[in-house]
Specification:
26 strands, eight-stranded antiparallel beta sheet, 6% helix, mainly beta, disordered N terminus, elongated, 377 residues, five-stranded antiparallel beta sheet
Length: 377
């Protein structure tokens, strides 16, 4: 269910009356007045039904019910729910009367971000239930140009009787509607050139520099947001763990092959030293939002250290257009699976594993191992 915010400010005031033949003061126990939230129902529709923005989805959190209590007993329940009715949505307000009380009058005032009010009121014969239905399209005239963030103010009035006793109640509440704009999908497929510029040398990283420094084979994948090759503060999966510890790519290749959320992957060769430029190609796809790119390569030799980039979205989901380029630094990362402190340290399994974190201290002190750039091919 989509995330949405609903805020109810409940304010109930009773005005009590006695019929001409009864001189009885009806007490109101406001400490027992409360609101009840039922099951959350997501209502989906386009704001074009209410405004001029067709790409916005409208969400509401309903139903919400209010208990009206007199002398410790529930005399009425007022429930609000939005229901889909043919081409419109209907605000349904249901009054249910109980414990011997009957309803004789109901009124609903709905106001949304403006001076225009929608009023529905009715006097009726004593009954156990009464409903008021107000189309949302009738309310839209008072809404802002964008329905997102619109504040619906409700005022419900109800009058109940029991024998010669008569009491009226007013319920005031507010609902803040939040919406989301669906991300726009980039068209077709797009091929990108991935350029890895490695600068690992004794000059850039003089502390504990290994004479045989180089980078393992590089794995690059295009995917959607539901797949994560790796990310800071997350735990390393087997694929990135094996890359970080040994440079082996078999586990990672098997992982991306089995993932429906992955569109394409490539494996580029490792390097002979730490100072070279590697260029490879990867294709992203707009369908399924498989526009994210991630990569990983081992800092060899090292206990469990690697570099790469993660979750780089090459589609501008606000405009639906492909990005021409993206770039960043090749930070050193610790996969959290080996406790070695130097490049040539012996294997020392970390138990339990730690989350992936940047190499900020000895021996690299946060100095990048190069840079990456993604450009349209």
């Amino acid at each position: 269910m989509m995330r949405h915010t609903v805020f109810f400010a409940l304010c109930i005031a009773f005005a009590t009356y006695a019929s001409a033949s009864a001189d009885v003061d009806i007490e109101v126990d406001q400490t027992n007045i409360d609101s009840i939230f039922g099951e959350h129902v997501v209502v989906k529709g386009t704001c074009s039904q209410f405004t001029r923005k067709p790409d916005v989805l409208y969400f509401a959190k309903y139903p919400a019910c209010y208990k009206l209590i007199l002398r410790g007993k529930v005399v009425a329940m007022v429930c609000v729910v939005i229901q889909k009715k043919t081409s419109d949505y209907m605000v349904n307000i249901k009054y249910t009367f109980m414990n011997g009380y009957k309803g004789i009058f109901a009124k609903a005032i709905i106001k949304a971000n403006g001076p225009v009010r929608t009023v529905a009121s009715k006097s009726f014969k004593p009954t156990d239930m009464y409903e008021i239905n107000v189309p949302l399209s009738k309310i839209r005239r008072s809404m802002k140009s964008d329905c997102c963030g619109s504040l619906f103010a409700f005022t419900f009035q109800v009058t109940v009787i029991k024998g010669k006793l008569r009491a009226s109640a007013k319920v005031a509440g507010a609902v803040n509607l939040t919406c989301r704009i669906p991300p726009k999908q980039c068209p077709g497929v797009k091929k990108y050139k991935v350029i890895m510029t490695y600068i690992w040398s004794s000059k850039t990283h003089p502390v504990d520099y290994p004479s045989n420094a180089r980078f393992s084979p590089l794995v690059v994948a295009s995917h959607n947001k539901y797949y994560t090759m790796w990310a800071p503060r997350s735990f390393a999966n087997r694929g990135i763990q094996e890359i970080a510890e040994t440079g082996a790519t078999i586990a990672m290749i098997n992982e991306v092959k089995s993932q429906a959320n992955v569109y394409k992957y490539i494996q580029a060769p490792g390097t002979d030293d730490g100072t070279t430029t590697l260029t490879t190609m990867i294709t992203a796809r707009g369908k399924g939002y498989q526009t994210y790119l991630s990569s990983g390569t081992m800092l060899f030799p090292s206990p469990d250290w690697f570099t790469g980039f993660y979750n780089v979205n090459m589609c501008d989901n606000d405009t639906g257009k492909w990005l021409s380029s993206a770039e960043g630094l090749l930070i050193g990362w610790d996969s959290g699976t080996d406790s070695g402190k130097t490049f040539l340290a012996k294997n020392m399994k970390t138990s339990p594993p730690m989350p992936i974190h940047a190499l900020s201290g000895f021996p690299s002190y946060g100095v990048p191992f190069g840079s990456w750039k993604i450009v349209k091919a």
